[in-house]
Amino acid sequence: MTVQPFANASAVIPARYARKFFVVPLNLENGVLHVAHRQDGDGNVLGELALLLGLEVTGEPYSETQLFDLLQKTYGVGADAIDSLNANGHGVDLDKEEDQARSGYVQRELVDDTADDASIVSVVNELLLRAQQEGATDIHLEPLEYRVRVRFRIDGMLLEIAVPEGLVRYHPVVVSRIKVMANLDIAERRLPQDGRIKATVGGVQNEYRVSVLPTQFGETIDIRVLTNSSILTGLSGLGMWENEQAFIRKTLESPYGVMLVTGPTGSGKTTSLYSFLNIMNETSRKIITIEDPIEYHLDGLTQLQVHPRIGLTFARGLRSMLRHDPDVMMVGEIRDQETAETVIRVALTGHLVFSTVHTNDAPSTPARLLNMGIEPYLLASSVRCILAQRLVRKICPACAEKDTQSYVKELAAEMADQEIAGRLDGDIVFMTGAGCDKCHQTGFSGRTAIFEILPVTAKVQEQILSRAPASELRKELKAVGTGTLRERGLALAARGETSVSEVLRVTAGQDGV
């Protein structure tokens, strides 16, 4: 059951009373207020509410879960705390603010010194808890001209989250609270700042990376939610199939060489690298990483953060790491020729090195490094495996339905890999998500990764030495690897785990498919 929130809810029943009586206004017509209430709740609630409001009140029973969701949608995150602050007379003068709004500007001034700190703490805690409940990876707190917008990145997509209108009055104090938690300078509002938060939310110890930027209407904040749950579940937890795991495990057993992970920002490269390092994290191995920034802290690893301002670059850090007798090293990203050359020469001296490169797919990665100025013979003799990946959204099980679009099987017939094309032309029902309240009407819930793996065989080495184009390497990918990203994605769609349209979205621009 989908119910649209009542637009003037807070004017009829303030948030603190809605929470107290566990009711939500649905509509007000001719002096009669219709509310949603808990179906197994106190039978006197409607009567007490009628006396308090001076209105006739009628009710419609809802389950506790439905009512809680409606409360969140109607009043927004932190509504109780904002309501309490307003009731106690904190914040800017409301009449003055309305005049400013009519004139086209809202003054964002700090609330007075007597503001209830506990209420501001509650607002921030509720934001963190709601993000955890929704599985968000980022929290965006954005001041606009007349309001504050809060958005969560869920399954790779930004979704706006309801917040009380009054949050705009307390935005500077909320920002200050987050700065305090992240050990940032609360007095500095002109320069960007970065920090980290460790906090227990909902009984779970979490870590957050905080970035603050000064904007026209105040400071905007991005809070990245860092979780190592997928790292600790191993290769299967990443979404790798058994044949893909075999390629990776063979690389992890190599005594030396380079393994490259490639893909766009937000494709899960760092998570994959940490998973590999976690598998190799034994007392018999010395593992050192250099990162920008350090995303996760893994016990047993020596982790460095680059500081370009003082000269600690990836290349310089990597050379210094060699003096600490490492077996395995990880370099956060190969960005330039110096870093690339250092990584390759370190690998050739008997070390296993992991790193990332920004390329579209595995076959195009050698060309990227060659264009940086790396000699073909060095590249061919050092790189052991290239892994490209993307994150695809999984179909919401609560609203999954048959995908009736005609182009689905037509696309399968165009695939170069006959084995996959044959599977897709068989008795396979492709699914999609219709959209429901559980998935925020997106049709998707959760994400998994798709991979393409190019092992550097003797044939691939010859192609690198001859500077063969990506199209030639792609043929070898299909012969000895796992197929292309799009083929892997369509195979996942054939299992009913994701939709064809989602696969096409994340693999757009891939050549040769």
Task: Describe this structure as you would to a colleague.
It is built from 21 helices and 18 strands. The strands form 4 sheets. Strands 12-11-13-14-10-15-18 form a 7-stranded mixed β-sheet, sandwiched between helices. The chain has a 6-stranded antiparallel β-sheet with strand order 6-5-4-9-8-7. The protein has 3 domains: 9-73, Type II secretion system, protein E, N-terminal domain (GMP Synthetase, Chain A, domain 3); 76-89 and 115-226, Beta-Lactamase (2-Layer Sandwich), CATH 3.30.450.90; 233-507, P-loop containing nucleotide triphosphate hydrolases (Rossmann fold), CATH 3.40.50. The protein has helices at residues 9-12, 15-21, 45-53, 64-75, 79-87, 94-102, 117-134, 167-181, 234-238, 242-252, 269-280, 314-321, 337-348, 365-371, 376-382, 407-414, 418-424, 458-465, 470-480, 485-494, 500-506; strands at residues 23-29, 32-38, 56-62, 138-143, 148-154, 157-161, 193-201, 204-215, 218-226, 257-262, 287-291, 302-305, 328-331, 352-357, 383-395, 400-402, 431-433, 444-455. Helix 12 runs parallel beside helix 13 and helix 16 packs antiparallel against helix 17 (418-424). It is an alpha/beta fold and 513 residues long. The radius of gyration is 27 Å and the shape is globular.
Chain-averaged pLDDT: 86
Q: Which blocks of ≥5 consecutive residues have pLDDT under 50?
A: 92-116, 421-425
Share of helix, binned: 25-40%
Overall strand count = 18
Q: Number of helical runs?
A: 21
CA-based gyration radius:
27 Å
CATH topology of the largest domain: Rossmann fold
Count of distinct structural domains: 3
CATH superfamily of the largest domain: P-loop containing nucleotide triphosphate hydrolases
Range of strand content: 15-25%
- What separation lies between the terminal Cα atoms? 41 Å
Summarize the main sheet.
7 strands, mixed
- The computed structural class is alpha/beta
Numbering strands along the chain, what is their spatial order in the largest sheet?
A: 12-11-13-14-10-15-18
The rough form would be described as globular
